[in-house]
Amino acid sequence: MFPVTFDRSVTMFLLARIEREDRLLDRAALEQVYIRDIWAICTRWTGASKEQSLLGNIHVEQGRIHMTAQGKRLLEGGRIIGGWFGADSRFLDAAAVR
Asked: Exposed, middle or buried, 37 (CB in 10 Å: 0-12/13-18/19+)?
């Protein structure tokens, strides 16, 4: 089975990088890590969409992408867990961006 989402979290990635380079990074360096590493990962949508389709979280039909029931449950679980940690709702709720 494929990994789901928590290993893909930007926060977890940055925390792991800070742990690895403890006391070596300042804000500017961490910003460069984000721009160089995270942005590069996030722009690889083609692979991510294929993975999410294989996982059953999305379905592509006639070129249109829609969320499956499983994907909705996964996102709702993410919202619950995100609430426990005060996650930024813009990453878990599209309505929060509007």
From this structure: middle
